[in-house]
């Protein structure tokens, strides 16, 4: 009986020692483990940061903390290195094949706080910094634009589960509508169909003037989200503005 009690006491003592050792090891490991700090929307990448997996978002390691007045886009643009204004516009123009072919965008309009999105083809003129599209007469978006000319357009590449291949172009600007009696209509046909012979363009314009209007958007701002820039040690968010010293009215804080 005494022997059994002695063996039991020895076993319990060994178990206690193992538990204490395991607890101490776990505590030391927890103290040594580096916890990723919270990231604010304006946080700059530290020079001693470990190598980054460009395919993964920062939130895989960090918790984001934001405030109620700063938009994510405005702060993301401030992070990292920025392209020169002309270089950025050239990069955007190349993506849009400006002056060569039109690209499909989603157009966002709003009337009386009721939004509407429409897909349509646009040609970007990088010289004048305007975009042209042709709309059928009588569509709902024309009513929106007449009452509220501030518009937004967006074009993006399908998500591939990889941040290093993301491509998104967001445009903000002021839209104007022109019917067939305006010289802007002929200008839009010339810019939008550069490969058509002049005779064919004239025939196209004559036919389009009967049932279409031209929408010209004066581009005020373009935000480029380009994951390939990460590989160039640049910020993936870049912002181009027509007038750098002027904040568009829709960014005015009240």
Helix-strand sequence: HEEHHEEEHEEHHEE
Assign the CATH topology of the domain at 81-251: Pnp Oxidase, Chain A
Helical proportion? Answer: 25-40%
- Report the end-to-end length measured between terminal Cα atoms: 86 Å
Number of helices, where a helix is a run of at least 4 consecutive DSSP H or I residues: 6
Condensed summary:
The protein is of the alpha+beta class and 254 residues long.
Characterization of the model:
The protein is an alpha+beta fold and 254 residues long. It has a domain at 81-251: Roll (Pnp Oxidase, Chain A). The chain is 31% helix and 28% strand. The protein contains 6 helices and 9 strands, in the order αββααβββαββααββ. It has helices at 2-32, 72-78, 85-95, 140-147, 183-192, 198-208; strands spanning 39-40, 64-65, 103-111, 114-125, 130-136, 150-156, 167-178, 212-226, 237-241. The strands form 2 sheets. The chain has a 6-stranded antiparallel barrel with strand order 3-4-5-8-7-6. A hairpin with a 4-residue loop joins β4 (114-125) and β5. α5 crosses α6. The longest helix is centred in the first third of the chain and has 31 residues, at 2-32. The model is unreliable at 2-31 and 250-254 (pLDDT under 50).
């Amino acid at each position: 009986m005494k022997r059994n009690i002695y063996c039991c006491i020895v076993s319990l003592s060994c178990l206690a020692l193992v538990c204490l050792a395991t607890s101490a090891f776990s505590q030391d490991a927890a103290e040594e483990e580096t916890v990723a700090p919270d990231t604010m929307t304006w946080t700059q990448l530290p020079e001693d940061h470990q190598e980054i997996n460009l395919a993964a978002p920062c939130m895989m390691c960090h918790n984001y903390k934001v405030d109620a007045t700063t938009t994510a886009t405005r702060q993301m643009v401030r992070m990292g290195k920025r392209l020169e204004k002309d270089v950025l516009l050239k990069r955007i123009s190349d993506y849009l094949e400006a002056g060569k072919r039109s690209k499909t965008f989603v157009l966002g309009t709003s009337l009386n706080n009721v939004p509407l999105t429409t897909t349509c083809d646009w040609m970007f003129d990088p010289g004048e910094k305007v975009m042209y599209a042709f709309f059928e007469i009588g569509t709902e978006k024309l009513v929106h634009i007449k009452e509220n000319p501030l518009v937004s357009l967006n074009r993006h590449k399908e998500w591939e589960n990889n941040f290093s291949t993301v491509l998104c172009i967001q445009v903000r600007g002021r839209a104007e509508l022109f019917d067939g009696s305006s010289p802007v209509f002929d200008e839009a046909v010339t810019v939008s169909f550069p490969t058509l012979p002049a005779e064919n363009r004239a025939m196209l314009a004559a036919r389009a003037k009967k049932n279409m209007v031209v929408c010209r958007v004066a581009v005020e701002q373009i935000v480029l989200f380009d994951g390939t820039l990460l590989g160039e040690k640049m910020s993936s968010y870049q912002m181009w503005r027509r007038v750098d010293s002027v904040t568009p009215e829709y960014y005015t804080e009240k």
